[in-house]
Amino acid sequence: MAIRQGLLALLSQGPRYGYQLRAEFEASTGATWPLNIGQVYTTLSRMERDGLVTPGEQDDQGRVVYTITEAGRTEMERWFSTPVAQADRPRDELVIKLAMAVTAAADVRPVIQAQRGATMRTLQELTRAKRASAEGAAQRLVLDSMIFQAEAEQRWLDHCEAVLTASPQTQEKQR
């Protein structure tokens, strides 16, 4: 995930210190990607090294406030204007698991049923979180995305089950 660019987007709204960035990042994403404060400060150090942010003076509570630089704004705008390619996303472990189960001639139905149950529970939790959400549009969009992904996974699992049921290999096993 592009934490670096996400922090730049928050800093484009004005100077902020690390804990503030962490809280705003989690609020914007509906806390679906919790950030470790150490990760925030490590990322800020790297962005400072790369000229994307500049640290300011410490405030009266000893917090260093960071400001986005022009290079940081350029990086953020480049990120916003560049589509995310499928190849940039991590591998889907579920797809690999089902492919390997089929390849190993294992009974895939229990794998699909276990995943279907887990995905349904996730979908219910996300729907409850969406109903309870009083946050802004950013959090709602994140929850909507996760709900759509869970619904797509359910449809894909239905498809897998149908394909495997119609497969000559499966029909041969059932005889």
Automatic annotation (TrEMBL):
The keyword DNA-binding applies. SUPFAM superfamilies: Winged helix' DNA-binding domain. This is DNA-binding PadR family transcriptional regulator. Keywords: DNA-binding. Residues 91-164 form the Transcription regulator PadR C-terminal domain. PANTHER family: NEGATIVE TRANSCRIPTION REGULATOR PADR, TRANSCRIPTIONAL REGULATOR YQJI. Residues 7-77 form the Transcription regulator PadR N-terminal domain. InterPro entries: Tscrpt_reg_PadR_C, Tscrpt_reg_PadR_N, WH-like_DNA-bd_sf, WH_DNA-bd_sf. One of its GO terms (molecular function) is DNA binding.
